[in-house]
Specification:
5-stranded antiparallel β-sheet; alpha+beta; Rossmann fold; 223 residues; 2 domains; single chain
Length: 223
Amino acid sequence: MTKSQSSGATHGRTDGEAAPPRTMRAAVLDGPGPVTNLRVREVAVPQPPPGWVRVRVKAFGMNRSELHTRLGLAEGVTFPRVLGIEATGTVDLDPDGVLAHGTQVVAMMGGMGRTFDGGYAQYTVVPRHNVIAFHSDLPWAALGAVPETLQTAYGCLTVGLDLQPGQTLLIRGGTSALGLAAATLATSEGATVLATTRSHSRLDELAGHGVDHPLFDDGDVAA
């Protein structure tokens, strides 16, 4: 995905395009507690202020972060709140005209689903600096799984490890979504990658994702 911007009409919508509905479905958490506190209900479609963008959500990832929020473990959350720290979709409205209507975008973090409503909805409004525009022909179900997983893997390898070409990386739990993303990024940067799995049947899967040394994890990693 590449970060980009495209110009559009003043309100990100051209004449003749249908306006969004006045209401939408969203998963709203009324307060910390059991899962029954999280309910799908009809709410008003949010309006973006200057500097914010309304995204028509096509898919969103589900993260452990939302579990923490639902249990009351996240800081700074006010209720009721639409959960979801990420979303993938298209620009529905940019009041500043920076991003054109229909632009494919992802949005994540920066307070989504905590200090303001997040991606568990048909529409979400987020600060423009939280939005990354891209173009892809992948199905929305696949794109929805990418943002937070890729961001986490990239952050671990760069900010966390400062991985350099020619170095060797060991990934435990290599067949997880995060493990596969880390392996792909690390091999593309010229690192030698070892990745483990607790299933002999998945060793070929690791090799197929470019892992140099797929390893069966019997608990004795040091050996």
